[in-house]
Amino acid sequence: VRVLHLKENIASLARLLASTSHGGFPVVCRPKPDHAEVFQGTIKRLELCMLLENEHIFEPERNDKSFSPSHPFSYEKITVEKLPNLSRLTMLLNRYTTDPRYQQLFINLEPYINKSAMSVQAHFSLQRTYIVFRTLGLRHLTVVDPQNRVVGVITRKDLMPFPLEERLRVQLAPQ
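Above: the chain's sequence. Below: its structure in token form.
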């Protein structure tokens, strides 16, 4: 499972976006140095692309792992329904992955993640998962273990055979 951290390295983020087509990512953090990373929320690919087009929000890493208070964008500014200029985005991702100075820069994703994103336990019923997807119109659903560590992501595509089985069952049921 590809996860992001609340404080994410720009070069790593660019490599991830360039090498995958995932529409969204779980975001994790380590509450204390000796604890496991736990699920915090999700962020969409489009939102990440919008953030990467705004270099002024990148910051160098600090020794105390904190971030200076940046001026986050409004929700409306980063939630777009269409991809930014694709050729410009490809050029930016290439620059961020090859230019060494982006290895030293980070972005604070905390103001932009969906902290109320749905998640299910690893042993959650497939039927209920399907109902949750249909009822809420979800695209991804993060799967966590009892300690809230990310163990997987379910997408709509993962559930596509299920509606087919359901339709067959209805058709074959005695009238």
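The first helix runs from residue 10 to 19.
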